Every structure is written in structure tokens, then in C-alpha cells.
Amino acid sequence: MKNVGDVGDLCTGCGTCAAMCPLESVVMRIDHDRGVYEPLVDGECDGCGVCLRVCPGVGVDFTDLNMRVFGREPDDMLMGNYEECYIAHSRDDELRYGASSGGMISQILIYLLEEGLIDGALVTRMNPERPLEPEPFIARTPSEIIESRGSKYCPVPANVALKEILEVPGRYAVVGLPCHIHGVRKAEVISRKLRERIVYHLGIVCNHAPSFRATEFLLERLGVDPGDVKSIRYRGEGWPGSLRVETESGDLLLLPEYWGSGFGQLFMPERCRLCADHMAELSDISFADPWLKELKDEKKGRTLVIIRKWPEKFAGILKGGICEMDKIKPEKALLSQIYNIYMKKKLCRRSMYNGSFPEIDFIDRIILSFEPSRLKIPWTIKRRYIFFYSMIVALKARMDFLGDSK
């Protein structure tokens, strides 16, 4: 490979290469056929290799990066390095209700800004001019943090905003999916500026980032033309939340709890199938939905918080009166994510990166061969099939989990 233009389907669309190219020759553009971002080398390339060195898509050396970040290899093969686990939520009811699950990321960023601990945060909002496209940026005020709250269930080239961190001195937090954090960590290896200026890495637990086709599918279900969308929010309005679409004609449409519709399984980019990291293992602190039986009646939202580094620093923030928090056992944190961890660690072949991880067994191979997006069947049939398939995978995951815990 000469540059990221040769990466192809291995590209995660994270945007790190665009920020780090010394000649500024890489830009991120949408491949409308596949519904994902891809790098375009549209200028001079001297073959320096920087773009490939920071690319998480071509490979992530988890052992090396764990040693650089934590000074040790992972404590736990499934969760990575960690210190403490909590279930928490913001004490600001409005912020909590409008967020994806508990409002903890927004609340922590606002606290860091107001206390002068950071000068800005790399976050993402939807572009007001092109409402179906995300816009990564550096938020420097609490109002900009609130503007960016909530999950974005579409491709996001978040790390293009690293360019501003390189250009403007200060102390920054970055918020991203595991692949974004991978890109940041790889960029920090070769950039002293980034190592010194990025002081907080906040990771969002992720199964995959759906392609733009997924959003088109949801709009079709609502009977909305993409060109008529004024604004879109994928989560919020309580927990687990609803898709919220406002049209140019003034209509406000809600689609609650739409994940079981096939939204996730049918629109997974190829690179996401190879991802080994569900839990954002290389972040300083990870955030997730706490999918636990005892929280099934939760309506306002709570957040699973996994503190991986500097527990005393984050514990001080969390206990600073901005949130309610309950410490939980790591096993409970793991159980809340067991289905997706199963998919990442076994079906997605973590053994490709580290031979000590389990191989795919015979039953796994059968399950993987019947993954919904691989089947060419009518949608009316596939929608019911997805439910059945999910139950089989969840049952197998639980059996493996119980077997490993003995």
C-alpha cells in the first residue's frame, strides 16, 4: 500500500488520516453506493506513510498500545484494562432525558469545561446545512456540548477534527467510538503535540456504526423523503429513546425503539465485522447502555461507566455533585454487554490480532453463516428471521459465558 487510498474495505472511516497527512492531501468523502466515508487522496503524495501508520483499519497492535496507555497488558480478555465500574446518570434531568442513556458524557465534558480542566472537546453534531451528515468539531462551550449530545447512528469521520487540536494549543478531551480511539492512540504514537494536548479519551461502547443506508431505511419507514429532513436525532426523549425527525414542512415524527427492525444487522459495514473492540478498551473511560434485567423499566436513562485509567481523577469528577453513581462488579458490566462482546470476541475473530483468544468453534461457524445480512430473502421474511437469529446468538453467548465462568 502506498497510502490510504489503497486501504479499500479495511477503512473504518475514522478520519485520522485526513488530519495527520503532512501535505493535507487526504479528504474524507461519502461513498454513496456503500453509504460510508472513505479517504480520497486528491493532492500530492510523497509516500511518507503517515496516513497508513495512523490508520486503525489496517491493524491495531493492542498489546503495544495497552503497554503505552496503561503500562500493562489487559487485566481482562473481554473488557480490557479497567479499575472501577459504575451505573450512573446526570443529576440534570433535562440533560439526562435528552441524552442517549444517562447523559454522563455530556455532563462530564461540561464539568471539565466549566472547571477549566479542558479548553475544548472533540465531539460530533449533525450538520445544520446537510442534516443527514455528521459534523465533527471542537466544542468550547457547554451549549456546544449539549448541541452534540446523543448517539449518531451513521458513519462519523470524527478524527478529522484532530487537525484543530494540532493547530490550536490547549488541553482537550476526545469522544469517539473504539475505532476513533484506536486512530487517536496511533496518531499519538507519532505526534508529541497530540500526546500532550489530549488529556481525556472518552470511548463509546460500539457494536458497529450503521451505514447511511440505515438512515435511508428508517426514513422510508416513516414515509419521509431524505431531502425533506430539517433535523434528525437518533436517540433521546428518555431511554432507550426514539428516532426524532423534523421535516422542512414542520412535521415532527418519532420512531421508538427501532433497533429490532433490522436497522443494525442489515447495514453493518464490512470493516465492522473485523473489529475486535466492543468496549472501547483503549479509552480512559468507557460509556455504554446498561442492558441489565433490573433496569428494564428504566425510562430516564442510566449509563454504564467503566473507568480504565486515573480512577482517582474520574472518581473525583463523578463524585463532584454532578451525577448519581452506584459502583457495580465488573461481572455485571460484562453481562450487560455479553451479546455484543460475544460477536466481537468470537465471531469477529479476535484471534486474528492475538492468538490467545478463542477460535471460532463449529457452532459459531454455523451461526455466522446464517447472519441476516448475508441472506438474500424478502424483507418481510427477514424481519421475523432477525428476531429468531438474535435469540439463538444470545442463547449461545450466555452458554459460553456460563461455561467460561466455571
From TrEMBL:
Name of the featured protein: Coenzyme F420-reducing hydrogenase, beta subunit homolog
Record lineage: Archaea, Methanobacteriati, Methanobacteriota, Methanomada group, Methanobacteria
Xref: Pfam families: Fer4_10, FrhB_FdhB_C, FrhB_FdhB_N
The 4Fe-4S ferredoxin-type domain, residue ranges: 1-31, 37-65
Gene3D superfamilies recorded: 3.30.70.20
Origin superkingdom: Archaea
GO MF annotations, alphabetized: iron-sulfur cluster binding; oxidoreductase activity, acting on CH or CH2 groups, with an iron-sulfur protein as acceptor
Record-linked InterPro entries: 4Fe4S_Fe-S-bd, 4Fe4S_Fe_S_CS, Co_F420_Hydgase/DH_bsu_N, FRHB/FDHB/HCAR-like, FrhB_FdhB_C
Keywords for this protein: Iron, Iron-sulfur, Metal-binding
Nucleotidyltransferase found in the keyword field: no
